[in-house]
Amino acid sequence: MAQVTGIGGIFFRARNPALLAVWYRDNLGVPMNDHGTVTFHWVDSSTEDNPGTTTIALFANNTDYLGEPGQRAMLNLRVDDLRILLAKLKARGVEVLPQTEDSEFGRFGWCVDPEGNRIELWEPAEGM
Hints:
The structure is a single chain. The protein has 3 helices and 5 strands. By secondary structure, it is α+β, with helices and mostly antiparallel strands. Strands 1, 2, 3, 4 and 5 form a 5-stranded mixed sheet that branches. A hairpin with a 2-residue loop joins β3 and β4.
């Protein structure tokens, strides 16, 4: 059967791709190259206790969860220590949203990149 087996990538427009790549690298530790790309290999980092997952989730068109109404998608980045990363981002002058959320899936926080894109930062619950 022909079917989808996973997410191959996340692509979005940037007014200044080179500058945005540096911002993601310097502030979030995303190891982007000079062309603004990075590939994460789950097989390299997954374990039996921490399998590594990627989620697709659909939201109603009128949701404010994704940020401003013109933002059609939101990047969700898996992080290893949400509290420390949010403090680091604030210290660097990055716009960090004041609320965080704890759920059965883990802890969530949000920041905004220089082009106004809301980014969700996710520290997974144990075993996710």
